[in-house]
Amino acid sequence: MTDVIVIGAGPAGLSAAAVAAEKGLNVLVIDEYMKPGGRLLGQLYEEPDGSWWNGIEESAKLFNRAAEAGVTIKLQTPVNNIETTADGIWSVYTEEETFVTRHLLIATGAAEAPVPVPGWTLPGVMSVGAAQVMTNVHRVKPGNRGVIIGINVLSAAIAMELKLAGVEVASLSLPGKNSMTEESADPRKVLNSLLHVSHMAPSPLVRFGSRFLQNDIMKKLGVSFFPKNGVKMWDIPVQLRKAVIEIYGENEVEGVVMANVTSDGEVIKGTEERITADFVCIAGGLYPLAELAAVAGCPFYLIDELGGYVPLHNEQMETTLKGLYVAGNITGIEGAKVAAAQGTTAGLTIARNSGIHGLVKEIQLAIQSIKQTRDNASIQFHPEVKKGREIIQEKWEEHARALEGTGSEVTSEAEAGG
Amino acid sequence: MSGRITDHPVLGKLPETRFVTFSFNNQEYEGAEGDSIAAALLANGIRTLRYHEESGSPRGIYCNIGHCFECRVTVDGEPGVRACLTPVKEGMTVESSGKLPSPVRDWRPEND
Q1: Mutation to test the A interface, candidates B4, B42, B54, most A Cβ within 10 Å
Q2: Which of A177-186, A341-350, A383-392 has the lowest mean pLDDT?
Q3: Which domains are assigned to chain B?
Q4: Could you report the per-residue pLDDT of A45-68, keeping only the tens digit for each?
């Protein structure tokens, strides 16, 4: 039996594994991708101090630290299921083998929400993260000229990365409004959320918009006065008053149909135009990838500030199930540095729960470090993320009080084994 | 291989890699060792990886990180392999799956 199993070799999983191994535990990390690092691999952006955050180098550092500490890393190994098979034992099922442990950390990260647009199944249409991985990890151009549908922090950052790699981005624009895209197709809401990215690298969009945003009426004016042809960010047209209503092409993407929209995002008939492109990125935002925590039986809460449904957990990264932990984007959408700090905390908590003494202070400092990292983050995916963290903490306390009330202990193994 | 980003202003020059030969739908291609099948094909200008089992419509990568299964191909006879997660190897045989026969008949006259 392995002391600790970690599912996911991203910044959270690798940090947790390294810390637990440095405390003397034997640790196995399982990941289905072919390289360690998770989605950190594709990241590339300029820090406010002018240095570059290079995801490939950061991933290598995390991997080397874990490897030096003696962590075993199994790549190209998808996990199909997890369950408690005996008292305090977790079984982790993969195609070829079943692994068992007393301490299981789920650090599966996030997935990208798709945005349905007519023509979106054509080859050449991909999630914006797909284009990032193709460009920065595989070093293959997703195409020569692209259109990005969905304006948010992630798509703006990746648009810049594409440009850096010599790929033309013809436009960053909204999706056409329908029942699935209400939030992301409303120019006012999108502008509002973008303006929270206040300390993201030099952004003309933010400077342009901030003049208008004193109150709600001005917010409306901000969108109304938004130039029809957009403003340029890193030389890429950002078009808050245009939406892609269709992707066209015979057998592959040949272009998009774009139309002007009102300040509420309604398409103005007769303004449709064709823009040629050989690839299209859809940017619907990230949500926690939490299926394994769900099959294990964790209670979940929908917390929009954290990006979606998150498994109930405490600051030490424990779930309500004995021996099951979570860290990284599965607990809410934030940057890689926060994920790594959460991983460190999870690793220490697992070491303490494995019987290693003298870690109380260190765990407290690690929790503090998560908060500091969050405060110093240069990119924030959700402006209200701190509120989201408070909500999940309140839910945890409610849960603990409810258990005290019934006199039962914190285990739900009967449910989980089910 | 015009699709490769050989020089990058921050990531630098593409490291020297060994090239391997593999086949896709009976045609031979070269891929860099360590490439995913999807990346190796895209570097060769190929986006269409399969045809939908029911509609026959062409499909390519969507998420590129294993979540969506849109890039599933047959590798050395094994169906349902994700092209975005599988490294290309020397001599590998990759095939697109196509439209499957359906027991359900569309009785509308325009489809006769």
Answers
A1: B42
A2: A177-186
A3: 7-99 (3.10.20.440)
A4: 877 777 889 999 999 999 999 999
